[in-house]
Amino acid sequence: MATLFTRIANGEIPSYKVAENEDYYAFLDVSPLTPGHTLVIPKKVEDDYIFNLDPEVYEGLWAFARKVAVAIKAAVPCKRVGVAVLGMEVPHTHIHLVPMQTEGDMDWRKERPVVTDGQKAEIAKSILAEYEKL
User: Fold this and answer.
1) pLDDT value, residue 53
2) How many whole angstroms separate alpha carbon 127 and alpha carbon 130?
3) Which residues pair with 97 in a beta bridge?
4) What's the Cα-to-Cα distance from 31 to each of 37, 58, 63, 94, rounded to whole Å?
5) Which one of 41, 93, 114, 122 is least enclosed by Cβ atoms within 10 Å?
């Protein structure tokens, strides 16, 4: 059975895609810490622990995440893009990229902002446009 994230990357479940290549997929988090909070996943590997990844997949994932973070920084007003790898909620390796104004923006315990579908669509479109420029 494919993981939730594999089904998203395969287009079986809708998502707000911000970047994609043959091996990796990036999409907006459904419950973002801040607007633009993005998840980056390997498309072909469903392992739930990032340090189990083959070195080539691991390095490719981080290179792709870096490019996505650059696009987020260009598209979403923020001081920087924070990164976290928790991987406890979905059994599929994923990197969180979170636009930040302060370190408090990376607090998973805080109340989440309301981001409408229309806002998510615009944010995703803006990040994808920046990604495609790189």
Assistant:
1) 97
2) 5
3) 38, 83
4) 8, 25, 25, 15
5) 114
DSSP codes of every residue in 40-89: EEESS---S-GGGS-HHHHHHHHHHHHHHHHHHHHHS--SEEEEE----S
**Eight-state DSSP code of residue 115:** -
pLDDT digits (tens, 9 = 90+) for 58-82: 999 999 999 999 999 999 999 999 9
This model's pTM is above 0.90: yes
Number of H helices, E strands in the chain: 3, 5
- Contacts of residues 76-82 at CB distance under 8 Å and 24 or more positions apart, as own/partner, are 76/35, 76/36, 76/123, 76/126, 76/127, 78/34, 78/36, 82/106
Structure tokens at 97: 């990229």
Ramachandran bin of 89, using left for φ above 0, alpha for ψ from -120 to 50, beta for the remaining angles: alpha
